[in-house]
Structures are given as C-alpha cells and as structure tokens.
Design brief:
- The active site is at 31.
- Belongs to the dethiobiotin synthetase family.
- This protein has a single domain (2-204), classed as P-loop containing nucleotide triphosphate hydrolases (Rossmann fold).
- Helices cover 36% and strands 17% of the residues.
- The chain has helices at residues 14-24, 40-47, 67-74, 111-117, 132-145, 161-171, 187-204; strands at 2-7, 28-30, 33-35, 59-61, 93-96, 122-126, 150-156, 175-179.
- The protein is globular.
- It starts with a strand and ends in a 7-residue tail after the last helix.
Length: 211
C-alpha cells in the first residue's frame, strides 16, 4: 500500500515518522518535493536499518523555504501534473510531504493536492504545543472536506493525554502510534520503533512487514 505522511506543521518529525513507517512496512521512501539541503531523502536513508533504493524527487529545490517561494527564487514553476508516483517501487511506498498540508507548491496548489491527485491515504503527524489542537483539527477538517482517506494519527514527542484525546475525538480515526520524545535517533532506534508500529498497523490497517 501507499501512504502519504503529512503533519500539522513544519519540523513535526515527519522524516523520523516516515523512516519508522518505511522500515515497518518494508517499503520504499519517496519525497516528491524537497526545498533545501540536506535533503529529507538523505536523512531518512541514514536512519533506515535496511538499505533501500533512493528515489529521485520530482522537484529538488535549493532554498530551505516554502516550495513555492524556493521555486520562484530559482525561476521554477512547480507543476502538480509533473508529480507522478515513481515506477518500479516495492509493493509498499511511503511518501513524505513538505511542511504541513496547506504549504503552497505554487500560487494554486498545496501539499495536500499531491495526496488528492495521486489518491493517497494519509497519516497525520501531530505534536503537543500551545496551538497544536487548533492546527490538528484544521488539518483534519481539510482532509475530511476533500473526502480523503485519513488512516490515523501519529503523535510525536511530549505526551499530553487530554490534547491527544480531543484530537482523536474529532478525527474519528485511531492513533496509529506514539513516538516518544527522542534524545537521539539512530537505525537501532528506528528498528525498535518500527517493530512496535508494525503491531499497531496489523491491528488497525491489516498490513504487516511480513506481507
């Protein structure tokens, strides 16, 4: 299966979560649009315990800015139609978005449009900070407004049970995984977390690393 990993904002830990899902599903990893260096593709592959083929980005932009701004600075126009799923991948593919769902790709399209165009089910990464409930519920509402398939929520970082409860109540989807506050991230840590996640995925999504 293909899964689109997005988040309620920037610096949410999408790359770490993507690495965990990639390992748990024995999947390939793909970042459709990258702005700035080092790339998330490089970061994820450094974290993966199991070597994977590096899939080329549809757009690789120089500046660590919103994709629309970075592209404009380079004289590039990001075209949604140019973003197509890579060929010759494994059965499972983890696709990581850029920033939050409503980060603009150009003057018309946003990151969520990639998931909608490619008909990808989503996993939303949420964090605990002042304002995170608002950001989470707005993201969930937009996903539902578009009729997209939200598979579940991943909570990343410091725990807040009441915040998590109210987000899940409105989302009406399961919490797929809780990534603890990590002081260090390494392939060994990814392996451990992937093993934990795989049990949850088997329960909620009926998929397994052994498929």
């Amino acid at each position: 299966m293909n899964i689109f990993i997005s988040a309620i904002g920037t610096d949410s830990g999408k790359s770490v979560v993507s690495a965990i899902f990639t390992e748990a599903l024995n999947a390939d990893y793909w970042k459709p649009i990258q702005a700035g260096f080092p790339t998330d593709t490089e970061t994820v592959h450094q974290l993966l315990p199991t070597p994977k083929e590096k899939l080329k980005e549809a757009y690789l932009l120089k500046y660590p800015m919103s994709p629309h701004a970075s592209a404009r600075k380079e004289g590039i126009h990001v075209k949604l139609d140019a973003i197509q799923l890579p060929q010759h991948t494994k059965e499972n593919l983890v696709i990581e978005g850029a920033g939050g769902l409503m980060v603009p790709l150009n003057d018309e399209d946003c990151v969520i449009d990639i998931a909608e165009k490619l008909d990808l089910p989503l996993v939303l990464v949420s964090n605990t900070y002042l304002g995170s409930i608002n950001h989470s519920l707005l993201s969930i509402r937009e996903i539902k407004r578009r009729g997209l398939n939200l598979l579940g929520i991943v909570f990343n970082g410091e725990r807040n049970e009441d915040t998590e409860r109210i987000i899940l109540k409105h989302a009406q989807v399961p919490c797929l995984f809780k990534v603890p506050q990590l002081e260090e991230v390494s392939p060994a840590v990814i392996t451990n977390l992937a093993n934990q996640l795989n049990q949850t995925l088997s329960q909620h999504l009926n998929v397994s690393i052994h498929e």
